[in-house]
Every structure is written in structure tokens, then in C-alpha cells.
Design a protein that fits this description.
alpha/beta, Aspartate Aminotransferase, domain 1, Aspartate Aminotransferase, domain 2, 2 domains, 14 helices, binds 4'-deoxy-4'-aminopyridoxal-5'-phosphate
Length: about 400
Amino acid sequence: MSFDPYAIRNDFPILERTNRGKPLVYLDTAASAQKPRAVIDAISEFYESHYANIHRGVYELSERATRMHDDAREKVAAFLGAAESREIVFTRNATESINLVAASWGRQNLGAGDEILITTLEHHANIVPWQLLCEEKNAHLRVVPINDAGELDMDAFESLLSDRTRLVAASHVSNALGTINPVREIISIAHERGIPVLLDGAQAVPRFAVDVQELGCDFYVFSGHKLYGPSGVGILYGRAELLESMPVYQSGGDMIETVSFEKSTFKSAPYKFEAGTPDIAGAIGLGAAIQYLSGLGMDEIERHEMELTAYGTKLLEAIPEVRLIGTAAKKTGVLSFVVDGIHPHDLGTILDMEGIAIRAGHHCAQPLMERFDVPATARASLGLYNIPEDLDHLGEGLHKAIEMFR
Ligand code: PMP
């Protein structure tokens, strides 16, 4: 069956709801994606019929819950093309996954005078943990600049790598501009010098197929809630050899092998990084989201969102008062813009009255806003359930707002 976004919309109960009494036009999927019935049902069914804590019970229900949780990890591993499911660590979100790497791998591998290289395009989640680590270790944070289109300056990237660079941490897709970064090139250049690479895939995994082995990255992180799954669950992929070499991060129940008051020993990866009761239903819901997306086909989703991005770009370019921020040759899913004489927050409020949900602000990328010399942008972001009519509504709403401010 071919990909039909009009039919797919029926899988998402919330799209039948209204916003301010108007049909909901949801253009904020980069902040969080709406949930298909398959995910909602998988979570309800788990709580209704299979719920128990995992890893602890000898009774049937607990064994079943444990199997379902293990199965979710297998699904994530297959979805990312990981070699083994022990390379998949469940966290709360992409932010926690990055903090885990910074606290564990970072503390072990960074010394005074060392460097971590990030990019101007990063979300605060891929800036602040490295900044704090550098402060703690007397190390330095280096930043790859971008051009006016919002593309990385790859010559600068190469020249910023030094014999003190210990890690490159870069987004796969920018949440604020939609730029798709040349991650293969980044990894190949960094690896030539023996430098590991962490990719923040929060905005990439919902938009196209990602294969961590094919990319060759060392760490890859994302959040379940942006992948049409529940909030409260995130993923850290790490190459097995790296995860095994890393010290524990949080400690307590479930991650130990033995405990005495003198000394404790720990399980192997991924369990040594999963202290305490995890979001069991969240993991199962994420597994259901992955199954749903795989059923639709990531390549079809990619094509659909690319087409919509091109459609939305044309539509916005045709409005003289609108200036697009982020015009990379390779971009997807995000349309960031400013409108002459209207603050993005006012624009967000006016569009909200029309039923249109967009985001206005710095998008947790303040240094990037500074680079473009704007305090904020309006951002319409796309998901697999969006249709050209959603963007037509956005265009009409913008014309209305421009008239109001004339
Ligand atoms: N990185 C990117 C590129 C993001 O878009 C986001 C969420 N906006 C994050 C990291 C952080 O995700 P979370 O808040 O789910 O941890």
C-alpha cells in the first residue's frame, strides 16, 4: 500500500480535536510528535493485562513484563541497525543520554587542556553537559561555525580538530533550522584522527532511516516522544566496547551484581547504566512506535516530509514579509522564519487563535539565534501526518497576522 498521509491521520486520535475551537493544525512535531492509536493501545494493554515490575519477580506476570521490556530493546536495536541489543541503554530522553556520556565517558576520558568539539547548530542538550564537563576538567569547548544558510563550515571543522580533541558531538538534524548535517564526513574525518563521535539524532530518527553501524558513529542518542512514542523514555546507543569500558553513572537497585557495605560490583552494559525501576510502559510504547513506523516505511516518511518541506518553503518564500532562517541545501522537517514587524511570540498567539500550533522562541538554541542576530524565530515543524493543507492554513494565518500589524 502506498503512503497516504490522509489515511494515516486517522491513526492519530488527537488530530480530530480542536485548538481554540478550530480544527487542530499541528505544526510542532519537532517539539514532540503526536501518538498513533497503536502506541496508546500498547501502553493501555500493558497496564491492563501484563503490568508488573521487571527483572525481579519469579511469577509469570513479572516474567512476561520482563520479556516485553527486552523485546522493546530488541526493536530499538534493529531500528538503529545496532550490532547487539546490549548496545541500547534506556534513559529518560536524549538529554539524559548525553548527560550519561558526559558524566561517565567524559569524566573518564577528559583531562585538563583537552577539547570537545560541538557545532553552532546544537540544542542546549548537546551544549551544556559538555560545557559543565569542560569547566570541571579545565578543558575547552570548541564550536564549528556555520554559513548564512545554516550549514556547517566543514573546512573550519577540520581545522578545529586538534591533537587535544577527545570527542566530536554534533546533531544529525538541527531542531531549529532543519539542516541535515554531513555526519558521514564528520565521522570519517574524526575517525581518521582516532576521535570518537556522538550524534544527537533527536530530530533525525523520526524523519529518515538511521543505521548506526553504517554511519560508524560511537554514540547516538534520541528521545522516544519525538519518535511518536511516549515521553519519559530515551535511548543511548553506544558501541559495546565503549559502553563496557565506561564507569557506572547512577547507582542503586537493578544495576548491581553484588552489594556489601564494603564494596559493590556491577552488571555489564546496558544494565549497569539502568539504575532503579525504568519506565517499563514507556519502553513498550516506544517499541510499538517503532513497529508502527516500520510498517509505514521510513523511506516513505522521509520522502513525504521532504516534499512537504519543499512545499512549505515555496509558500513562505512567496510572502514578502517573511524571512526564512535556515536555507540549507539539505534540510528536512523544519521551517524557521521571522516576519517583518511582528514578534514571533505575537505570531504564535495569533496563529493559535486560528487553531494552528507552531513554536515561537529560541528553540533551546540560544547561541544559534545569536548567530542569526534574532532573539527568536517562529518555527513550523512537520510530522508524517502533516498534509499540504496544514501549510496552506499556516500561509492564510500569516497573511491575517500581517494585515493585523499593518
Ligand atoms: N536534541 C535535539 C536536536 C532536540 O531537538 C531536542 C528536543 N527539542 C533535544 C536534543 C532534547 O530532547 P529531550 O528534551 O527530549 O531530551
